[in-house]
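Collaborator request, handled under Task 6.
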Amino acid sequence: MGSDQREYEKVAVNESDIHKIVQSYLMYNCFIDTLESFVACIGAKKSIENMEDMKKRKEILDFALEGNASKAIELTNDYVPGLLEGSKDLHFDILSLQFIELVRSKRIDEALGFAQLKFFPFGKEEKYVKKLEDLMALLAYEEPEKSPMFHLFSPELRQEVAKNLNRAILEHNKHPSYSTMERLIQQMTVASQELCKDGHQPFSLKDFMKM
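Structure tokens returned to the collaborator:
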């Protein structure tokens, strides 16, 4: 960061601003129990905003993370009608999760029927073809989790889809699609990268977090 890297320590930070940043992060990720504990700990008198929205998003995201994509789709359509139809990439990704879970549970005939019914519109677009080929290839293996497409069964894939679904719901409901903490880190990273262009030491968020 440069020779003046400790200058930021001279900047006064309002504790209430820190509380708001933490609350924003917890609300964004639907960490309801932790949020309620945090609010009680800091003695906040104001009730938690958007609690009903958080509860609905949490229920949807929990199903997506568990691999129960059909239930996640059902609840999403109930809570934000038209969202998935208007977000084709997201719709494809969550349908893919449902197909993968059918394959994982050895419901092959059902998986085939599902693919024919749900994936047909996507097969007309080039950007989905390779993904569809990988999905269909799972059907050729008795143990698809050990196939070259094993990554499709990873929890990281479900986490990525859930993250994008959460962001889409928030944006649809006119809420910030990134938490305040994420935006601060993004802005700090960009500002530090600009300083590097002027000859300052290259910025590393990992190193910064160790200070």
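The cover message to the collaborator said: "The chain has a mean pLDDT of 87. Residues 18 and 189 are 19 Å apart (CA to CA). Please let us know whether this matches your experimental observations."
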